[in-house]
Amino acid sequence: MLKTVKEMLKCAEEKLVEAGVCDSPRLDAKYLLAHVMKLDLSELPISGDKPVPFEVEDELEELLKRRMDYEPVSKIIGSRGFWKHDFKVNEYVLDPRADTETLVETALKYAATIDVKKIVDFGVGSGCILLSVLSELEGVCGIGVDISEEAIKIAEENAATCGVKDMVGFLRKSWSDDDFLEHIERDYDIILSNPPYITTNDYNNLSKEVVNYDPEYALCGGDDGLDAYRELAPIFYKVLAKDGVVVLEIGKGQMGDVVDIMSSYGFVLIDKIRDMGGVLRCLVLKKLQKL
Ligand code: GLN
Asked: Is residue 289 over pLDDT 90?
């Protein structure tokens, strides 16, 4: 006998509860079931009596095994909702975090106050920050920098689904390369970045979901977590327009250190924004204007 969607959901949820791997077994089961049934999450409640074909049940079984092996739902279904779009994700890009939407909101707030023509995102990954910002603006072009060719492929696909393909370009290069500055334009009005900022110590204590399925190079910021800020600060100074702003993500408790680094390269802090969890997550900095 075929199970119905409703019965299958209960079964899947029970398996996840028993495995004890996730905080939200029901929601995870819903995502996975909707995915194999090729339904939108919102269609599940009205599809409760639909029969689940055996091959779909087998497919779900496989996905549940992956979830029980700590693979995040987003990486299993290959997509994560962020801001107003679904972003394709895989093992080469950081799973977009809801906290990072703080950067999008902040960049848009500043974009409304300055004349923005060019935006750059350092460590663009899936493109979630840059593409979300571009999708809300007109007459602006963006460039996404990343060390990973695979990440850029994903970001390119996401640019198309966000409808901003014609507004964006990508540069595959490491910002620690000696000749980096020869490859990037100047006078960006907004610099965006969510650089790797986890300390080596904290990285070793992260959950399996993160360590096994997010790329290490997108997370690890060296012993004190601040390596990327030290590398980026002088680059930001060279490529930022005179009246431009840097909108930067930081980790918990890093504000003092990051502001010190940025100040030593000629920046001043003009704004700091907390994420939904109350953590100071986003800094806005400008070039100190010389008198
Ligand atoms: N916010 C991410 C996390 O907590 C880290 C992102 C980063 O290192 N830039 O896993």
From this structure: no
Residue 206 alpha carbon, nearest atom of ligand 1: 10
Tokens of 276: 């939904």
The span from the CA of 107 to the CA of 129, in Å, is: 9
Residues 6+ apart with CB under 8 A from 261: 226, 229, 230, 233
Q: Return the residue whose CA atom lies nearest to atom 5 of ligand 1.
A: 219
Question: Ligand 1 within 6 A of 102 CB?
Answer: no
The tens digit of pLDDT for each residue in 25-81 reads: 999 999 999 999 999 999 999 999 999 999 999 999 999 999 999 999 999 999 999
Contact 245, 285 (CB under 8 A): yes
Dist CA 127 CA 144 (whole Å): 7
- ∠ CA 35-38-39, nearest 5°, is 90
Mean pLDDT, the chain, rounded, equals: 97
Is any ligand 1 atom within 6 A of the Cβ of residue 97? yes
The CA-to-CA distance between both ends of the chain, in Å, stands at 80
Query: What pTM was estimated for this model as a whole?
Result: 0.95
Ligand 1 close to Cβ of residue 144 (< 6 A): no
Residue tagged 């930081």 (tokens): 250
Inter-residue contact 120 to 147 (CB < 8 Å): no
CA of 139 to the centre of ligand 1 (A): 31
Closest ligand 1 atom to residue 220 Cα is 8
